[in-house]
Structure formats: C-alpha cells, structure tokens
C-alpha cells in the first residue's frame, strides 16, 4: 500500500512538473508563432520603400490569409499543437484544428513568467488543452485578429509522462519491495525472537523453574517487557521460597508440641505413669501444648485473614495514653520476673488515634511482649508517644541481649533473633508479622531500627482521629 501511494504521488508531482514545463514552452513559442502569423498579413511588399507606413503593406484577403496560414504556419507546429486567432474580445476567429470552436470565448490570464503573454486551460473539441496567447494589432490583420494562440493537448503530456515514468516506477517499486521485504524480515526476527524467548521462559516458570530469566533489556517496548518479566519472575521465586519456608516453619513449630501431646497422652492411656504426680504433670503438659497449638492456629488464621483483607475492622477514636497504660499493667508481672523497669512517657495533650480497639490491643501486646522477652535483663524499657504530621507514633526502646535481631527481618514470619530459643519461651515468631499487617489495615505502619547508642526501637505509627465538628452556639434571647 505504501509503495502504491508513493508511486501515485510521484506520478502526480512529475505530471504537474511536466504540465508546467509544457506551459512555459508554449509561452515562449507563441511569441515566435506570432511573428510568423504577422508575416502572412501582407499580400505584396515593394522592393523599395520610399515612405514607410501603411502603404508599405497591402493586406491580403481573409480567405487567402487563412489559406496561407494553413499551408505555411500550421505545418511548422509540433505534434498535436493547434493555432488559433482571437478577436480583441477573445472570440475564436481561426482554428487550425477545426471549425467547431468558432465564436467561442477563451478566458486568458497573464503569465507570471513571460511578459506580454496570456495563459489558459480550456476544452477544445471535447479535449483539455494548454493555451498560450500573445496580442497583435487587430487593424493589421486581414481578419481583425487581436491574439495569436498556440494550444497543446494535455493528454499528450500525460501519456508521455506515464510512459516515461511507468518503467522507472516499476524499477523503483521492485527495488523498494526487495528492501521492504528484507526490513520486514529483520524486524520480524527482532520481534519474534524475544517474544519466543519470553514464551519459553513463561512455560518454564509455569513448569516450576522459578529461576528462569530472559535477560532482555532495552529502552523499547520489548526491552521494558523483558525487564518487567524478570521482575515478575523474581517476585514469583521469592513468593514461592516464602511459601516453602512458611510451610517448613509451620511443620517444625507443630512437630514439637504434637510430639509432646502424642507421647504424654500415650503414657496416660497405657498406664505407664504410676504415680499421681506423674499423671498430673503429664496432663498439665498436654494442656499447655494443646494451648500452644491452638494459639499458633489462631495466629496463622489471623495472619491469613489480614493478608486477604477479610478481617473486620471497627475504626473509632481511641485514647492512646490510656490504652498504653492498661497494656503496661498487663505485661508488668512478666517484666518484674526479668527485673525490667517500664517507663511510659505520654504527652498530656495528645489527640486520639483512629484504630480498632481490639486490634490495637493485639498490636501493643505483641510490641511490649517482644520488648519484655528480648530486652537485656535488669534494664529499662522506655515507651514514648510522639505527635507528628502523620499521626501519633509509639516508640518502644530497649537494650538488647546477646543476640542482636535484624530490624529488616523482625517482621518476617517465624523470625527469631535466637534460633535456639524454644517456641514455649519465645513464641513462634508470628506476633510482629500479624501486628504489622493489622497496622497497615488501620492505615498505619510498623518498623524497627537502632538509635545511635545501639538501642532497639520498635515504631508504631497510627493516624489521628478526626476531630468532631463544633456546633455553633445559639444566642439566648432575653425575656421581654
């Protein structure tokens, strides 16, 4: 289609150039023909002219004049050209091509390239012609002609252009077609190659080969698609690894309590525990391990619900200072057993936070429980509240023991700073993961870092609750 359009436009442009060339040639040639026409006006010319003037030329008769034009001037015309004579009103008086144009008026416009020449494009005998005209003295013409006109058919030029241009267009079109086919082949290979590679990599990932990468880079669409595919593959591989680690951790965490449950329950069933104290101890262990399994199952269920967005939230204004004071009284007995001091600092004028009271209790309980479990024994845990433009920020800071946790991994599932610590003593490592997801669900966030002194800080940021609109006071009217 592009080749056809290009060829058609080229033909039109070349044809217009040829038309202009023809008009220019006619403009120049008509001046020469006008001289020849004027030479045929006189019947006789004396050999010696004593007094130049009107007596130097005797005008011929109209019939002889036209015959002499037909026999002398017209044969000198090239191709299908026609000679016309017009009266001063531009009506046809003589036409070498026939008599069907007599008395018809031909409009003329001045030429922009040749002086004293007029131009026209008109129909003569049902065919389009280019015309060039130059004026002559009507009183010197036997038929009183005011213009000499030279006409050339348009079809001859168009046919000549088409004949000359057709071969060249065919040659150029053939060459362009070959080049286009080569370019299409190169472009198709540059497109289909990466797409085939992407399709193969997608099949590998669907088959379980999550480490497959395509390595396609570039600033074009294919390069951006390749980079996006590799990022997707990395995300899928990380998600798959997280899933495997999660299943492995769940299996490991369940194995210990289930083993204890099976062992002690079997001992109770087969009667191998003879004393009453041994049976009471076994029953106590079975009860505690059952609670551990139930607590783990509940935490896993909460984590799944939060990540799926199916957990219900009842956001309301909560007094953060009172909530923290209540949570400290709950964890204080555990802190005293490890000789830990709790220091709470809350400003007097803090605004309430927008949170779910039950979920906020769960978050703060996990935050303080983590500080009590992992703070160095005999130290102080400092809890403070800071107000900023994003809301209210709770900071729990404590010095750490022998095992320094990684603040980037503390919110990962089943993470423990001390891998050897038992689940009974340190939990299963899901509390902070659940707390972070709950904070996000309440449009807040949680993170951890170290200060300049190496003190571990856990941050909880929650949005401030919207202040209730104050209704305007109505003026009291005085009694009359």
State the assembly state of the protein chains. single chain
- CATH topology type of the largest domain: Beta-Lactamase
Number of helices: 9
What is the β-strand count? 15
How are the strands of the largest sheet arranged? Answer: 4-3-8-7-6-5
The second-level CATH architecture of the largest domain is 2-Layer Sandwich
Number of domains: 3
Point out poorly predicted stretches. 45-55, 469-480
Roughly how many Å apart are the termini?
96 Å
* Major sheet characteristics: 6 strands, antiparallel
Quickly give the structural class: alpha+beta
How large is the radius of gyration? 53 Å
User: What is the averaged pLDDT score?
Assistant: 80
| Strand/helix succession | HEEHEEEEEEHHHEHEEHEEHHEE
Strand content: 15-25%
- The level-1 CATH class of the largest domain: Alpha Beta
Percentage of residues assigned to helices: 40-55%
Judging from the principal axes of the Cα atoms, what is the shape?
A: rod-shaped
Structure description:
This protein is α+β, with helices and mostly antiparallel strands and 480 residues long. The protein has 3 domains: 2-163, 2-Layer Sandwich (Beta-Lactamase); 221-308, Signal transduction histidine kinase, dimerisation/phosphotransfer (DHp) domain (Helix Hairpins); 316-462, Histidine kinase-like ATPase, C-terminal domain (Heat Shock Protein 90, 2-Layer Sandwich). It is built from 9 helices and 15 strands. It has helices at residues 2-39, 62-73, 154-206, 221-270, 276-308, 320-337, 357-374, 423-426, 431-441; strands spanning 42-44, 58-59, 82-86, 92-95, 109-110, 118-124, 127-135, 147-153, 316-318, 341-345, 353-355, 380-388, 391-398, 445-450, 456-462. The strands form 4 sheets. It has a 6-stranded antiparallel sheet. A 5-stranded mixed sheet has the order 10-12-13-15-14, with helices on one face. A hairpin with a 5-residue loop joins strand 3 (82-86) and strand 4. Helix 3 (154-206) packs parallel to helix 4 (221-270), helix 5 runs parallel beside helix 9 and helix 6 packs parallel to helix 7 (357-374). Mean pLDDT is 80; it is low at 45-55 and 469-480.
